[in-house]
Amino acid sequence: MRSGAELREFAAAARRALVRESDIAAFEIYAASTENRIARISYTSDIPCRGVEELKTLHADGFQVRIVMRRDPHEVGAAFDAGDFTLEALRGALARARRATVVDPHFPGLAPPPGKPAPASSAPGDLSRATDSTLARCAWSIIGGALSAFGDSTAANTRNPGLVLGGDISIIRDRIAIANSAFSGLRTDQSAYFSSSVTAIIEALDAKGTASELGASVAAMRRAAAHLGRDAVAGALALRGGERPPSGIYRVILGPQPIAEILNYMVMGSLTTGAFHTSSSAYHGRFGERVMDARLSLYDDPQAGAVRRRITCEGLPARRVDLIRDGRLVGLLSTLYDSHRLATDDARAEKLGALGLKAEFAPANAYRLGEGGGRRYDSHPGSAGTNVIMRARGGVSMPELRRAVGDGIHVGRVWYTYPINGQRAGDFTCTISGDSYLIRGGKRAAALAPNCLRINANVAQVFDAPLAASARSSPQIVWGAPEAFEVPALAIGGVGLTAVGAQD
């Protein structure tokens, strides 16, 4: 991974070179170095295995140059180069950017000076210096905890128990340096966090349990490793021999992981200025109106969780954005480009609704992200969250949530969540993958067999009028998502569930 000093030196040298180009009216240099270190867990009790696979490391180092031509303020070009932070590479990228220029009437220009001093770079934290051996020890700690929990159970004496432990523990690190012809100096930032997801399957019991965690320090990673394997196995043991209910309309508790999945795949993509401009938001025409229950609020805060960012990938301050406050849609994630497009849209009144005509959307969420969430030199700025947090007023305990449901199903984990009928319709489907059980008489009852039911619902069914919400929100990760989530569980009055294998 490239050092912050190397990125700063290159950005400063590139700036000095580009100011001498007479045909360029404005420019931006974005230099980034991203690293994802992954320890994959693959333990099987009944066949030979390694336990922890050879560590994988994914690197992405490079820069991108954007230029605005002097002959037309709407003529813009961009090009990038991988791994080579030299002036010769800059000249090659500049030549490609000139050849790639297009006239974009919606282009508002590059980011202007923010109007206040540039925020200090995020503190690097000890995860930025964590070694492969630290990561490997944490992975083995996960396996050790799982084997200890399994060994203490009667299932360990079952003939061919078939314990399968899978997942990973990863460290995601990135550093950026930005030079913009409108800025008085460089903008720099860095971040480092870990994420881990572990799944335990006990084949003899037809049982499956999962556990996940994320954080921003080595100490937090070690604490997580000490309990993740144990929690995954304990979850599987508690849900052995699950029932397979028929298709129908059920009262359900959606746990924090399903809520995070639904937010990621169905809601966050609708809460951007780009989605409103393209008329693809599930909340089309409803800005300022109530779109969720009045007890629910949703916001994104780049300083309130594991994913810490002080500047956007356009060099502007990253800040908290309230998206839904007391059930009303009050804010959107945005880039500079999309803020301008929506502000100048002739159909703005129809797309936002009457209450949104005077709304302004600060470009506080423009990030150039790759798979897994690290900032990339070869991506274009797009609207994305950092730490997405949902709060619920009047939250209750889990036993009270079960009593609110009465008879139904606790859904602890889902997968393969995706929209159907287009994003704007708000319809989605997903499969209940594990960590779930039946509720009878307001109490926890029999386990639910993994992958036996599929949810077919609409976001309005989930968020418009929940029976109750949990008082506690918990951190969650969604596979492949750039954001971290902190969300409660919700009890829902009626959701359609289809038995897997049954005809719709």
How does this model look, in words?
This protein has 10 helices and 25 strands. With 504 residues, it is an alpha+beta fold. The protein has 2 domains: 4-238, PmbA/TldD fold, CATH 3.30.2290.10; 248-499, no CATH class. Helix 3 packs parallel to helix 4. The chain starts with a helix and ends in a 5-residue tail after the last strand.
Counting DSSP H or I runs of 4 or more residues, the number of helices is 10
Tally of extended strands? 25
Largest sheet: 9 strands, mixed
> Which band does the percent of strand residues land in?
25-35%
Low-confidence stretches: none
Principal-axes shape call: globular
In percent, how helical is the residue content? Answer: 10-25%
Mean pLDDT: 94
**Secondary structural class:** alpha+beta
Kindly report how far apart the N and C termini lie. 50 Å
Rg result: 25 Å
